[in-house]
Amino acid sequence: MDFDLTWLLWGLPIAFALGWFASRLDLRQLRIENRLAPKAYFRGLNFLLNEQQDQAIDAFIEAVQNDPDTSELHFALGNLFRRRGEYERAVRVHEHLLSRADLSRADRHRAQHALALDFLKAGLLDRAEEALRKLEGTAYEEQALLALLAIYERSRDWVQASEIARKLDAGTAGQFAGRQSHYLCELAAAASPAEAEQLLQQARLAAPGSPRPRMDLAALRRKAGDARSAFELLQEAAGSNPGSLPLLARPLVEAAVACGRQDEARAMLQAAYEQTPSLDVLDGLTALDSDPEAARTRYVQHLQREPSLVAAAKWIAGEKLEHEQFHPDVQRALDHAVKPLTRYRCAACGFEAKQHFWQCPGCQAWDSYPARRVEEL
């Protein structure tokens, strides 16, 4: 059978034309898709920069619909939902990412971390804990441990908090020995006297410079009737951390009176006061004075060194005024005026309280309350 070259001559141009036409269609479709997705994406970024979150979400949703396989758009959308407080929608976005089989390992870890943040912001601490635990061994492990530590502190689960703090202390997140000491003190507060003794001794070793373990241990010994040991522990605390003496002054005086070591306590408090005048140290000294007149004189001498409305109110309380019938009214007004000045203020968030806290009730920061009162700051 003879081969007809006519078909070959016609077939080659036709095949070439069809191939060229198909390539043009593919290029055109690709250009359309590339124009649509970036346009919606950049429009969303523009809305986001102008703090128009509603419009930004609409633009990102459009971009995701045009290109559902783009993980970055999903991350941007999920973060926007979380920032707006729409935690349920953020969870759905990040769970959708985790369900994708084609997601890379790094993006899977990123989506798991984002999901944990969604639960954390929504206040679903049990689900947040479960999600954070899955990040062990990933690039987000340290961030996950810090979040877990905050959860356990918030729920006052000091055993779990101590475990996480040990892991963080072994890493590069910083030093957590001080927190470990606080956790042990918190556990001791709810333990039997024998167990509390052991826990507080561990706390002393964990943070040798912290005054709290010795203060709590001194209170435990004082309650057991061992005032001498309590006094020596408070002396030790003052020596290792002189700045904490205003907190130690009252229990130090009480222990000194109970074991007959007033002279030692007076000498220690006087030396500290001469170096750094303090109202609490001054109150400790006046408590050791047997003569009321000598005690009132101390407040006058303090006023000569430091202008203090608190000291003035305490001095006037023991004085006879020319119009003594008005003294109660004047004293009541002064006591009302000095109340805000006798508070403690958190250095991290400014939260004020009548008593000293080791952990701020406002911002949950540890050791953020100075030992000195507001008037002295």
UniProtKB/TrEMBL annotation:
GO terms for cellular component: cytoplasmic side of plasma membrane. It is a single-pass membrane protein. One of its GO terms (biological process) is regulation of lipid biosynthetic process. It holds the Pfam family Zn_ribbon_LapB. Keywords: Cell inner membrane, Cell membrane, Iron, Membrane, Metal-binding, Repeat, TPR repeat, Transmembrane, Transmembrane helix. The chain crosses the membrane at residues 6-25. Residues 344-368 form the LapB rubredoxin metal binding domain. It is found in: Cell inner membrane. The keyword Zinc does not apply. Residues 24-377 are cytoplasmic. InterPro entries: LapB (IPR030865), Rubredoxin_2 (IPR041166), TPR-like_helical_dom_sf (IPR011990). Fe cation binds at residues 346, 349, 360, 363. GO terms for molecular function: iron ion binding. Belongs to the LapB family. Modulates cellular lipopolysaccharide (LPS) levels by regulating LpxC, which is involved in lipid A biosynthesis. May act by modulating the proteolytic activity of FtsH towards LpxC. May also coordinate assembly of proteins involved in LPS synthesis at the plasma membrane. This is Lipopolysaccharide assembly protein B. The gene is lapB.
